[in-house]
UniProtKB/TrEMBL annotation:
Annotated transmembrane regions: none
The species this protein was found in: Streptomyces hebeiensis
Protein name: Extracellular solute-binding protein
Family recorded in the similarity comment: Belongs to the bacterial solute-binding protein 1 family.
Lineage summary: Bacteria, Bacillati, Actinomycetota, Actinomycetes, Kitasatosporales
Annotated signal sequence range: 1-19
InterPro entries for the chain: SBP
UniProt keywords, alphabetically: Signal, Transport
Gene3D superfamilies the UniProt entry points to: Periplasmic binding protein-like II
Length: 417
């Protein structure tokens, strides 16, 4: 029975459009089928095969039905699934999407399991916080990824820099020294708003704040303006476009040309760089985005995924057990090493210490944050006012006036009136 089931999982992995729940015909009677929706490329086929085989061996009365979903259109699909009569039992969602689904009241409250079984006190804040709504934990952290600084070791050596900077002041000085002789100290696009968010948080500012149930844009606060000022000073030490984000053009491809000393990116950009320019293989280094002092790295936006259990799951207890396994130490370690992710706990950071890029990412993730935990935040990003604000400041417009315009647009997008 188990071998037949594993074949079914592999078939599902190759058919990303499939969606389904319940038992598979021909598997026999008595087994509980737990349907798990996971996102495409979140975990490798090899990892999923190992997890399914191990879990079903340890839980002989449970069959796992792993269904791979595409990111495109997933918001509407998950909403329909949790509001229907018989949805999947476990769903992977983006960490910043939990509030959107929790607002429906259709998710199981996992606070007890978080504290009693999963050691929530050690979770990465950038995964745990967006999964918590009004003090209740609905999203269980699964994996994280965040930005680091990728640097060209040859250019650092040529500039006489023998170690990566650990403070903002050191970083600015090093980048200034690197920005010479036709080389760019850093390639930082003008609208890389996730990076700006980290600088704002480092200054004690916020993108938006909630008061009395109402969300308001806060990017015009004095602290947030300080974050933008640091961004402007850093961005000036290279030739990044002021009116585009890091994807236009793709910054890894710019770095691969060989005359850029640094970019701010997730470590997996190194693969793209080395594919574009094999001569850079072995010449890339990584360090966490520096903080204001050497005591701790800079705050970063944490991307990643949480796991949720819909209330309409037919197998609540079994679903929770699957979540516990995926979020537990054994499979967190396996997932992190297989996929070069940051595991969900700060106490597990050492398991990726053998990979320089992931290790730098894990160090930064301890200071991770997520976007404002409003169910309407996606509306802000859909027509993001932060991007034109950044361009305006970089092109010399008054920062306070530009920030006020952006803050007002954020407030309007988050308004429920």
């Amino acid at each position: 029975m188990k071998n037949r089931r594993l074949v079914h999982v592999l078939t599902l992995l190759s058919c990303t459009a499939l969606v389904g729940c319940g038992a598979v015909p021909g598997l026999g009677d008595g087994a509980t089928t737990v349907t798990v929706w996971l996102m495409k490329d979140s975990a490798s086929d090899d990892f999923l095969q190992r997890f399914v085989a191990d879990y079903e061996k340890e839980h002989p009365s449970v069959e796992l039905d792993i269904v791979i979903q595409e990111w495109s259109g997933i918001g509407e699909k998950v909403t329909k699934a949790i509001e229907g009569d018989d949805g999947p039992d476990v769903i992977e969602v983006g960490n910043t999407q939990v509030a959107r689904y929790a607002e429906s009241g259709r998710l199981r409250n996992l606070t007890l399991e978080s504290i009693r079984d999963l050691g929530s006190e050690d979770w990465l804040p950038g995964l745990a916080q967006p999964g918590s709504i009004d003090g209740a934990q609905f999203g269980i952290p699964w994996y994280a990824a965040n930005r680091v600084v990728i640097y060209n070791k040859d250019l650092f050596e040529r500039a006489g820099i023998d170690r990566p900077p650990t403070t903002r002041a050191q970083w600015l000085a090093a980048t200034d020294a690197l920005d010479q002789n036709g080389d760019q100290g850093i390639y930082l696009a003008g609208q890389d708003w996730y990076t700006l968010a980290g600088f704002i948080w480092d200054e004690g500012g916020e993108l938006a704040v909630e008061r009395g149930g109402d969300w308001r844009g806060a990017i015009d606060s004095p602290a947030a303006l300080k974050g933008m000022d640091f961004y402007k000073r850093l961005q000036a030490l290279g030739d990044g476009p002021r009116n585009a984000d890091e994807a236009t053009p793709p910054q890894a491809e710019v770095f691969a040309e060989g005359d850029v000393a640094q970019i701010i990116s997730a470590p997996n950009a190194a693969r793209v760089i080395e594919e574009k320019n094999p001569q850079l293989a072995g010449k890339l280094g990584f360090f966490p985005i520096p903080g204001k002092t050497a005591a701790e790295p800079g705050t970063v936006f944490t991307g990643g995924s949480d796991l949720i259990v819909p209330k309409n799951s037919s197998h609540q207890s079994a679903a929770v057990d699957v979540v516990k396994a995926l979020a537990g130490e054994k499979w967190q370690t396996e997932l992190a090493r297989t996929m070069s992710y940051v595991p969900n706990k700060t106490t597990l950071a050492d398991v990726v210490g053998g990979d320089a890029g992931t290790a730098a990412m894990a160090e930064g993730a301890a200071r991770g944050r997520a976007t404002p935990n409003s169910p309407l935040w996606a509306d802000v990003e859909a027509d993001n006012p932060i991007k034109p604000y950044m361009t305006a400041v970089l092109q010399g417009e008054d920062p306070k006036r530009a920030a006020k315009t952006a803050a007002d647009r954020i407030t309007a997008a988050l308004s429920t009136d």
